Request: fold
Amino acid sequence: MGNCCSDVGGGMAAVSGAASSAATGNQNDAVDMYLRSHGIHGLFSQIELSFSATSLRDRDVFSKSDPMVVVYIKERDGAINEVFRTEVVLNSLTPTWIAKYTITYHFEVVQNLLFKVFDVDTQYHNVEMKMLKLEEQQSLGEACCTLSEIVTKPNRSLTLDLIRRGESVSSTHSQHCGKLTVHAEECFSSKSTADIILRCIDLESKDLFSKSDPFLVISKLVESGISIPVCKTEVLKNDHNPTWKPVFLNIQQVGSKDSPLVIECFNFNSNGKHDLIGKVRKSLADLEKLHLGREGENLYLPTLVGHNYENKILNSKLLVDKFSETAQHTFLDYLAGGFELNFMVAIDFTASNGNPRLPDSLHYIDPSGRLNAYQKAIYEVGEVLQFYDADRRYPAWGFGARPIDGPVSHCFNLNGSSNYCEVQGIQGIMMAYTSALFNVSLAGPTLFGHVINRASVVACDSLSTGAKKYFVLLIITILDADKGERLESTTGCIASRDIVQFVPFRDVQSGEISMVGALLAELPTQFLTYMRRRDIKPST
Reply:
């Protein structure tokens, strides 16, 4: 994968717990396997959903309905799980509920929600909410949407038509079921980031002929007692009194300011077997107190004494030179400000894919309807990104093929047009891809430059008009390996940002990883890096 650091230099880079580090120009945008193996990747936010309704059906004889909202999560396998119930609002056809549902927003996941509104019968008003039997209540209607559809609205409010089960959306009856409005608010803790500068003094030497090469790993403790790394500093060579570059911790990511953290100081070894120099256990609130009091905290080292481990207090100390909290603009703030993600796709039509008419080809169109590897990539990535593109018109290209009676082309419009490259919707990409397979001859070699240049032109044209768009190019191909290094031009110029995410087909096909999760989890962070480095702020 493109963001993994497989070399010694990459392993010595910092890994931040929050995307805000990119704005400072530090090397905290490196992401190494050490953190990934512990499940730290992607961007998430806590979202509060609130509910209101209008024009509900009146199902009571002598009074108005007493409505309640029940929220369900619809899983990919079709299972529906209840996750939340509001309170009951008495005698109202235009209720506004107070209880709010908190959900974790995952950019790379299509989170399907189902809302059902019930009229709670009077005889059950004294029954505890979670004990109510829903089959004994009258249905006022239901509606469904994805979480992405809500958060991409400029005001983060989505109004849905309530329909009754068994009635079509277009029927006259469904028009009388009322409307449900779902409003999303990002929890403030999602925006709060702690900016911290840490240093140590009098570290013990772990190397025989030189000083130690120290770095810090900050981990959060979960309920099971396991520590999960969320941040690490860069390595400072030959330094027993190191001061590291600032680290940035999203307060929500670590739980809260009072959540326990373990800060471990290691001596770096190129073989990956780093020596523990010492550690402390402190919360963010504790670190703030250390900063205000200008005090240091002694490191300790678990030491085997007899058959038990005891914490040996060391002379080495951890000090906090800076501690400040800031509220950063989040990915969702930019969406609310009208920014979009525009999806582009380029497909490999080189002969290395195999004859499309044979079942062992990656381009084989199965008569049963089973998607091939290319179709699956288009569908699964497009399924996520489509909610962030208002017009859903996608540039789509092919490369490495020979059009009928023509030379090999390393960038041709997938729709067959010589004038425009866009298709409508994900289904439009799928249809253009299938059509292209019957109108070109697979050739080679595999060259990306032409489609990358074409995509860059599209992005530059959009930028010149002031459009609030961030472009995402999906290249579907076959490669042997990925070194995890930043792109380098033929002149040796290194890319300023690591914006390439490489996912091997073989890992996806074997079920080892999720294609969408691996490709898109870090896209919001890359987006924020771009915006913050250019000091682009969302409009209010």
Remarks:
- The chain has a mean pLDDT of 83.
- The chain has three domains: 46-186, 192-327, 338-479.
- The two ends are 36 Å apart (CA to CA).
